[in-house]
């Protein structure tokens, strides 16, 4: 039997959290689907996929464009992503690095 893939959590994922799943989590924070304290540590792929679908539904309302977000959401997006980028850089992340994070 194959062991389900488990996410290590935003604080423990590769590239300082600048991964596909990391972006899903941050977008879930943006749209208040998850509290900003939730890192999804120990979550399986199916559970993350549920959040992914909810995040996509929210982005669809704005044409998947940050510039189409209302001012409050656009400001929250900037804060969340500016903090994430700064943190990731201190952990050695480069914008040219791409990786997946569920082993």
Task: Give a structural overview.
The chain has one domain. The protein has 3 helices and no strands. The protein has helices at residues 20-30, 45-60, 71-90. Helix 1 (20-30) packs antiparallel against helix 3 (71-90). The model has no long low-confidence stretch (mean pLDDT 91).
Features:
3 helices, 46% helix, 103 residues, mainly alpha
Terminal residue distance:
16 Å
State the share of residues found in helices, binned by percent. Answer: 40-55%
Order of helices and strands: HHH
**Approximately how much beta-strand content do the residues carry?**
under 5%
Instruction: Categorize the overall geometry.
Output: globular
> Whole-number radius of gyration?
14 Å
Low-confidence stretches: none
Please provide the count of β strands.
Answer: 0
Overall mean pLDDT: 91
What is the SS-derived class? mainly alpha
Count of domains: 1
List the helices and strands and how they pair.
Blueprint: H1 20-30, H2 45-60, H3 71-90
Quick summary:
This protein is an all-alpha fold and 103 residues long. The protein has helices at residues 20-30, 45-60, 71-90.
């Amino acid at each position: 039997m194959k062991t389900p893939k488990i996410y290590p959590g935003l604080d423990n994922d590769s590239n300082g959290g600048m991964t596909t799943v990391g972006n899903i989590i941050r977008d879930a924070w943006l749209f208040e689907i998850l509290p900003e304290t939730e890192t999804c540590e120990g979550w399986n792929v199916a559970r993350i996929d549920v959040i992914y679908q909810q995040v996509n539904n929210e982005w669809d309302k704005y044409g998947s464009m940050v510039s189409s977000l209302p001012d409050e959401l656009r400001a929250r997006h900037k804060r969340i992503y500016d903090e994430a980028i700064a943190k990731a850089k201190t952990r050695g992340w480069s914008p040219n690095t791409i990786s997946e994070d569920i082993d």
